[in-house]
Specification:
This protein has 187 residues and is of the alpha/beta class. The protein has a single domain, classed as Vaccinia Virus protein VP39 (Rossmann fold, 3-Layer(aba) Sandwich). The protein contains three helices and seven strands. It has a seven-stranded mixed sheet, sandwiched between helices. Strand 3, helix 2 and strand 4 form a beta-alpha-beta unit. The chain is globular. It starts with 36 loop residues before the first strand and ends in a 17-residue tail after the last strand.
C-alpha cells in the first residue's frame, strides 16, 4: 500500500482522553508475533504499553501530548500498530493505519462497522474484527477503571494479523489486578 499525503487532522478533544485497561489486550495476544516491535501511538498513561511489555513484547510508546502527533510522526522501526485511538479521530486513524501498510489492531466502537467511509476502507484493504463479550471499562479524567461504565461496545479492528476469519468472538474478563488510577490531565 502506498502512503499518500494526509489531510490536516484536528487535535483530539478532551472526551478522547480514555485510558484502556490491560484486559482489553487478552484477545489479541494469540495473534501477535512475539518478534514484532509494536508501536502504541496514543499511549496516554501507558496501560497498553505496560500490559504488552509484561508479556515480553517490545513496544515503542508515543503520544501527541509528548509532541509525537500520529499524523505527522512515526518511529524509525516498528512492525505493527496497536492502540485505542481518540474517539473523535477514529476514522482518520483507521485510514492512516491502512496507508502506513503495516499490520494493526485498533480498539474502536462497534459502530464504526456501519460507517460508509470505514466500509470503503474495509472493502479496499480487508479487515478482521474481534468482537468482545463485554464493554470495556475505560478510565477517564473523572472516573477510574473501577467506576467506569462505557456506554458503547468496542471491538478490535485488525489488518495483517492473519487471524484466519473475518469475525472472531472473544470473551474478556475484568481482572482484579487492573490498575484503578485516575487519568492525569495532559500538561
Amino acid at each position: 500500500m502506498a502512503s499518500r499525503e494526509h489531510k490536516k487532522v484536528p487535535t483530539s478533544k478532551a472526551a478522547d482522553l480514555c485510558q484502556t485497561p490491560t484486559y482489553a489486550l487478552d484477545p489479541l495476544y494469540p495473534h501477535l508475533n512475539p518478534s514484532w516491535v509494536i508501536w502504541e501511538p496514543a499511549c496516554g498513561e501507558c496501560n497498553l504499553v505496560n500490559g504488552l511489555r509484561s508479556r515480553g513484547y517490545e513496544v515503542f510508546a508515543s503520544d501527541i501530548f509528548n509532541g509525537q502527533d500520529f499524523f505527522k510522526y512515526q518511529p524509525n522501526r516498528f512492525d505493527m500498530i496497536l492502540t485505542n485511538p481518540p474517539y473523535s479521530l477514529k476514522l482518520a486513524w483507521l485510514e492512516r493505519c491502512y496507508n502506513l501498510g503495516k499490520p494493526f489492531a485498533l480498539l474502536l466502537p462497534v459502530e464504526v462497522l456501519g460507517v460508509g467511509s470505514a466500509q470503503r476502507l474495509f472493502k479496499r484493504y480487508g479487515m478482521e474484527v474481534i468482537l468482545l463479550s463485554r464493554r470495556i471499562d475505560f478510565a477517564t479524567v473523572n472516573t477510574s477503571f473501577e467506576k467506569s461504565s462505557s456506554w458503547f461496545p468496542s471491538c478490535w479492528i485488525t489488518s495483517g494479523l492473519n487471524i484466519g476469519q473475518q469475525i472472531t468472538y472473544a470473551n474478556i474478563v475484568k481482572r482484579p489486578d487492573q490498575q484503578l488510577t485516575l487519568l492525569t490531565q495532559p500538561a
